[in-house]
Structures are given as C-alpha cells and as structure tokens.
C-alpha cells in the first residue's frame, strides 16, 4: 500500500518543479529585451510582453492565493485590467498597465506566497486541490503564456534577443512516407491524468475507420512545391472562406517567408536564413494546411485520427499517455520546452515514435486537424467555463501535438489546442492523411 505522505511529497515536488521552470522561462523571455520592447505592442495580434507578465501573476493570485488559500486580494484593482476576456489584445496597450518593475515585483510576491500555500497543501478533498490540480493548472497557464510571449518575440522587429542551440543534425529521413493506422475503437481523452484540463475529459470510446497518416509532418521542401506549383493562385485547392482570405490578405507563402531570386528566405527570431527544406513547415494557417492537403490528393486528419495515431498501442490494446508510452518526455523523445528555437528535421526522435512508427507527433510544430473544437461526450467545465466552453463551435479548429515552444507540463497525447483558421503567427504546421479505399 502506498504511503499517502510519500504521494503528497511527490506531488509537492512535481508542482514546485513545474512552477519554478515556468517562472525561469518567463524571466528569460522578459529580461532579454529592454523596457521599451516590454511595453510596446509588436503586433495587434499580441499583447505587450509586460501585460503577459502581470497577467501571469494575477491568475496565480486568483487561483492559488484566493481560491485555494482563501487569502485577501493583493491588488483587486488590477483584476479587470488583466482579464483576458474583458480586453482584446489590440486594446491592451491603452490600459493602465503595471510598468515592468512593478509587474515583476507583483508576480514575485504572488509566487512567494503561492509556494507557502503549496508547502501546506494536502492535495485531498476539494477537486481544485486534488492531486495538486490547481498548481498544475497555474504552471500550465504560465507556460502557455510563455509560448505566447515567444510568438511575440518572433513577431518583434529588431536584433536577435534570444538564442538556443540547433537540434542535432540527422540523416535525411528515408523511411516510409505514411503509416497505416488500423480501424476499430480506441480510448480518446482521459479521466485519470491528474493535471489534464477540462476539454481533455472524460475518456470515451471512439470508433475510427482505417486510414493512412504521414510518418512525419509536412516539410518546407514539400510545401515549397505547392507554392511553386501556383497553389496560392488556384481556387481549386481552397475552401470558399480560405480562398476569400487568401485574396483579401494577399497570401503567397507561409508567414515570414520571402522570395530572393530562386530561393526562399525566412525570418526567425531576428535572423534571416534560407528556408531549410527538411524541417517541418511552420507558420501556416488552417486554410493553407487544408489547401496543401487537397493539392497533394490527401486531407487533414481528424482529431480522433490524430489521437489514435499518437496514443493507440495495438499490442497492449490501450491508449498511452504519449506516443512512446507513459514515461514523461525526455530529450530523446521530442523537441519541447524552448530547448531549440526551431523544429528538428523531419524524421528526428525515433525514440519518440508511436508503436505504429509515426514520428514527431509531440513537439516541433502544432498540427492542424480537420476537426472543429467541440466538447467530448460528458464534458463539464472546470474550474471555469472561459477556459474551454466559450470557444466550442465551428469557428475554431483543433491543433494537436505541441511545438518546440511548448513545455512538457502543457503537452501530452490528450492535450487540445485550438485557434481560428486564419491564424499563422502561432508555431503551427501539419501532416496529412488519406482514407483506406472501401473502408
């Protein structure tokens, strides 16, 4: 029989590690540029970095100090300023934001108190504290904003502010281009992952017909062929809404690409470089991913197909936490956690492959799916409907798998991301699928 005290200590250690890792990354992202860059809005699609910094602290205060510990509010007058639903991103520079120094002090004070709350936490009783959920939720929230801030760094003009080593070079992938995923039922979602968010729940059986899925994400080289075949000038490949958007926005290639003679260049975190042909394509919208798939005679996988390819172990007859099994992600499994500032070449991380041989399902690039963002059967909003419920509907498309900018705490085989089909400032790519004839 497991000692509850040992379980509590392990949960406490995990929560402390997750919170500390998130704050270390927040500090890196907000200390590598000067104050004018922190307070500027680098794109109307994104908040000023200083807004994210104080918002992180405010959310942590509301959930860990107020909701969990029942403490008095430290700065109740700023709650509305840092309410993401009250103020669209484009309007946030006009708000009376805390200046950088004050925002740092506020976030640090909240964190100190939150660690005291964590030290005394029992991890039992209320659902909010069971298995340390609230602490895991706050760590995931901060890491999600860290990814958002990294997007802002990519959109920012000016000299390079962030550096990281490149992924290890690998031989050109020469394995099969696609993998057959057998038909039949599998368990989608989770009811047991302690820090899973509400839209990942509950676990339920899903029937999926047999299909083929790309072994690796679609590469820059493959996508360039679509561009140079006139893909952006041919309405045959686009949905009606997608074609309208391409014409209106004047799209000709992925975001940050530009043609230079016979080659394509891209801007990546302040550096201009030749587009590497063997990396997964990055910064494409759902409309672009869908159009490429049609041009290639294929389609985007549904969300259920993607999750079956990522989690179903035919030999064991069950769904695993990750493609490689139940173990936490390590450097050999996936490109995660801002360890690198680019995707790894297609075919990397064989240790992270699924039992069927599908690679890079976790990390590198978020992967667009064909599916709308909808609740699972039996869904219940928790702890607040604004996390998922208000986004359900056909306006948003689901992305899966995580990118190089995602921390492992906010990435697992059941994790669901979503965005509007026009969005491409995010670290998004895709892979394609096809149905089995006669299935």
Task: Tell me what you see in this structure.
31% of the residues lie in helices and 14% in strands. With 439 residues, it is α+β, with helices and mostly antiparallel strands. Strands 12-11-10-13 form a four-stranded mixed β-sheet. It has a three-stranded antiparallel β-sheet with strand order 1-4-14, with helices on one face.
| Backbone CA Rg | 22 Å
Number of domains: 2
Give unreliable regions as ranges: none
Q: What is the mean pLDDT?
A: 96
In oligomeric terms, what are we looking at? single chain
Q: Main β-sheet: number of strands, strand sense, barrel status?
A: 4 strands, mixed
SSE string, helices as H and strands as E: HHHHHEEEEHHEEEHHEEEEEEE
**Globular, elongated, flat, extended or rod-shaped: what is the shape?**
globular
Distance between the termini: 47 Å
Assigned CATH architecture of the largest domain? Alpha-Beta Complex
CATH class of the largest domain: Alpha Beta
How many strands appear in the DSSP assignment? 14
CATH structural fold name of the largest domain: paralog of FGE (formylglycine-generating enzyme)
User: Helical residue percent?
Assistant: 25-40%
Q: What spatial order of strands do you see in the largest sheet?
A: 12-11-10-13
CATH superfamily of the largest domain: paralog of FGE (formylglycine-generating enzyme)
Strand content: 5-15%
Structural class: alpha+beta
Number of helices: 9
